[in-house]
Design brief:
The protein has eight helices and seven strands, in the order βαβαβαβαβαβααβα. With 259 residues, the protein is of the alpha/beta class.
Length: 259
Amino acid sequence: MIHTRWLMNRGGVIVTGGSKRIGRAICIGLASAGFQILVHHRNSLEEAEETVRLIISNGGSATICQADLSEVSSAKKLVDSAIENFGKVSGLVNNASVFIHDDISSISSDLWDNHMNVNAKVPVLLISEILDSLKDDEKASVVNILDQKLSNPNPDYLSYTASKYVMLGMTDSLSRGLAPKVRINAVAPGHTLVSDLQTKEGFSRAQSGSPLGFGPSPYDISEAVCYLMKARAVTGQVIYVDSGERFLSRSRDVVFETE
């Protein structure tokens, strides 16, 4: 159980895409560490309510905010909601992500813009809104969720990959520019959950083929996020939680090599 004294003066942590999958694990992990959680969702209210129920049943504090991250106004909406519910914002996990396959032969302007808006532009605007909200004596921590393929690039999911490279660059540049007010770090997961184009058998092959012989779980990702959220002497770091998958140097996305 969480002791309420740990919730005092912590402020709220916004977790985008926090209603399910890896986002839910992150929300539950941070709540267990004593943070108050704003669970963001776009159109998964029931899952968001279940995430909040799980947090509250364990003695934590959480609330829900719906927002469409393809709209720039969503950044202010989320920060305002966190301040209204928790008094201030002390953290952000940029977890929500568009993940639609394209490559150089199928890329379109709309698909590129959709990935960039949700995966990069609004996450940066969220950081800006949080910075503006901080009082002189307040600080915040940001964790960007990236992807192991940034260390092991291939031409699949081109728009998605490009958007994650933007956030990799923002992790580096903003960690330098916003210190000491805001720490910026990142977690780069490996193949953690079954994707839409993948069978369970293919997923099992993908995870078991990693150097460690198994793949990361949502809990593993959450554990790394929790560490970075609390690590007061760490900024500008990227933690790869991928069981060594990036060392495999795949020529295509894992889904095409394991099905």
